[in-house]
Design brief:
This protein is mostly helical. It has 10 helices and no strands. It has helices at about 5-15, 35-65, 70-85, 95-120, 130-160, 170-180, 190-220, 230-260, 265-280, 285-315.
């Protein structure tokens, strides 16, 4: 066998080795339709919210200062001692129902805002979305979903902080709240809530895409492929902490206004009051719980998102 024939035989052998084969076209990421984005978003929201809810309960109580001194571990321990494990899931129905609806709406709104911004900025059909564009679309998305998210968030916070029976349902509690304080009670903390949602979703959508592109490019993954599990966890965890670092001041104000709107009726009044009495550190009360929750919640959020998206893409292949 001459040298040319040997080289040809070796080349064929190498290309047949599983670890060295070029990725098949079916592994490439395909864009989802708006309806598919809504389905994926809804399933992702329900699953990730259920996973992170115990940490969210601890976060709320730390922010309101009703679990005494200490960090996340002590807050979780106190809740379990006094109310049992079931206490960690107080108010779960409201955020799960909200997450299913709001995450579906979130991905629907994101799809619309991305299309709008692409059109306004003169993007061509095959041009990849810039991370800044995705961040802007995320911020606009957060603002758009506020009317759905904030009322259910208020019910969740009141239930998490309440001393009522653990069996009290979110719907039952909401009805009682409407009777006692009127429908206007559900709008408490609106300004802070909008700023919080815009900050979170802007960082999540823009930051996640930025990090996954950097990590996959450094790993030599072909352009267009969706990130693997490790990349998703790293990127999701990182943007989770960063997004809450940005949104934490607004979340503190929102939580206190939603918990006691009569005592805390003004956004700017709350802003000045916290700075005067607690300093900048007051905006980061319970941050350890928020950071841990951000890691768990957003890592699981993007894992579920990539997982559900992958299932749909394979079904379309």
């Amino acid at each position: 066998m001459d040298l040319k024939a040997r080289r040809s035989a070796i080349s064929v052998l190498i290309t047949r080795m599983p670890l060295l084969k070029k990725p098949r076209q079916t592994t490439q990421s395909k864009s989802l339709s708006t309806t598919e984005e809504i389905v994926v978003g809804t399933l992702t929201g329900v699953a990730s919210t259920a996973v992170a809810h115990p940490l969210d309960t601890a976060k709320t109580r730390l922010q309101l200062g009703i679990v005494g001194k200490g960090g996340l571990g002590k807050a979780l321990t106190n809740i379990i001692k006094k109310e049992g494990v079931r206490g960690l899931y107080r108010g779960l129905a409201a955020p799960v129902a909200s997450a299913g609806v709001s995450c579906g709406l979130t991905f629907f709104a994101k799809s619309l805002w991305v299309k709008t911004l692409r059109s306004r900025l003169g993007y061509t059909a095959g041009q990849q979305n810039n991370c800044t564009l995705l961040g802007a679309a995320g911020a606009l998305t957060g603002t758009s979903i506020a009317p759905v998210v904030l009322p259910t968030d208020l019910v969740k916070i009141r239930l998490q902080a309440a001393r009522c029976k653990a069996s009290t349902s979110a719907l039952e509690f909401a009805r009682g709240l409407a009777k006692r304080e009127g429908l206007r009670a559900f709008t408490a903390g609106g300004t802070a809530g909008i700023l919080q949602l815009a900050s979170i979703w802007g960082v999540l959508f823009g930051g996640y895409e930025f990090l996954t592109r950097k990590i996959t490019a450094a790993a030599g993954v072909p352009t267009g492929q969706r990130p693997g599990v490790a990349t998703t966890i790293i990127a999701g965890s990182t943007v989770g902490v960063v997004s809450w670092s940005v949104a934490m001041p607004w979340d503190i104000i929102k939580t206190r206004m939603q918990m006691d709107p009569r005592r805390n009726p003004s956004f700017f009044g709350m802003l000045r009051g916290i700075i005067k009495s607690e300093g900048v550190a007051g905006f980061y009360r319970g941050f350890s719980a928020v950071a841990v929750r951000g890691v768990v919640s957003n890592a699981s959020f993007f894992l579920f998102y990539e997982g559900f998206r992958g299932v749909l893409e394979e079904a379309k292949a």
